[in-house]
Amino acid sequence: xxxxxxxxxxxxxxxxxxxxxxxxxxxxxxxxxxxxxxxxxxxxxxxxxxxxxxxxxxxxxxxxxxxxxxxxxxxxxxxxxxxxxxxxxxxxxxxxxxxxxxxxxxxxxxxxxxxxxxxxxxxxxxxxxxxxxxxxxxxxxxxxxxxxxxxxxxxxxxxxxxxxxxxxxxxxxxxxxxxxxxxxxxxxxxxxxxxxxxxxxxxxxxxxxxxxxxxxxxxxxxxxxxxxxxxxxxxxxxxxxxxxxxxxxxxxxxxxxxxxxxxxxxxxxxxxxxxxxxxxxxxxxxxxxxxxxxxxxxxxxxxxxxxxxxxxxxxxxxxxxxxxxxxxxxxxxxxxxxxxxxxxxxxxxx
Length: 350
Ligand code: NDP
What we know:
Domain Oxidoreductase N-terminal: 2-117
Bound molecules: NADPH dihydro-nicotinamide-adenine-dinucleotide phosphate
Order of helices and strands: EEEEEEEHEHEHEHEHEEHEHE
Shape: globular
Organism: Brassica napus
Domain Alcohol dehydrogenase-like C-terminal: 171-306
Largest sheet: 7 strands, mixed
Protein name: Enoyl reductase (ER) domain-containing protein
Radius of gyration: 21 Å
Keywords: Oxidoreductase
Number of helices: 7
């Protein structure tokens, strides 16, 4: 059972060498009797920016850190974990039958023994010819849900409003922009390469897009695209982009603080925010959120987004890496913008 482990705790941006592919042990492809567990074959793994918070030696978060390799006596528990799509192979849990497909937290390994301890993190999924299975990690998974919950529950969008999205071509951003367009908004996205900017304008239906790496002055860039100001900023990056957006918000604007992927280290506070004062005269609402607080609308999200996709009203871009051995590179690529769209790793064929 090949698996990817964390070698050492990381503070700052993880690198490929912080992880290691281990050949693992030979395992019996059976769920032990009396264990109430079930064995799955992992098919697709999701790479998500939040995973770096589990690579830190920090126990105060809502998820515990991964166990790094140097704690050798706990070898069986060492593995990186994240969302995945998997097929049940054997089961000692009457609720799971061999052959069924699931989406939930699984190990970065070929086979995982799972236990349904948290219903919210595990759901059964059906094959649907119209929707790729891996989309349960992106469009129909945590990333898509973050876009949906963040946009509708936090941003309070109204038709005709102006919306700015950062990391706009990524797993979350690309859906935020498309939902905003369906909502009758004017939408501009920022991204880190010409290829991504072209996708935003030509494939994802954004009204405008720009490469923030080519802008010496982010405030001036936002003024160019929003001469009358921004109603909604969906912030995926934090840092200097958030600071520039604060200068360009309209009165009563809303900022959804979704993520701060630009932070070099999660133990520092947001670097370089000088313009927060604007929140007062402009009566801005800045709200941080976690998608997991909105699970009550998950069924509604699935229904709406599946329908939009099947009707051709939205598209979704995925970046697929082939093989478990490429998973560390795929994960660290998120922090330099290597991924074009939702980053997924194919571990085995369906
Ligand atoms: P993406 O698919 O967007 O991948 C990350 C992207 O971030 C990269 O492609 C890159 O795009 C951009 N990026 C990387 N480093 C920097 C930097 N230094 N400055 C600016 N941009 C950078 O990831 P997701 O869509 O999965 O996640 C987007 C955000 O949403 C993250 O901050 C994540 O933590 C957050 N999130 C929050 C959740 C919640 O519940 N609040 C749940 C899920 C995600 P580019 O090339 O354009 O720079």
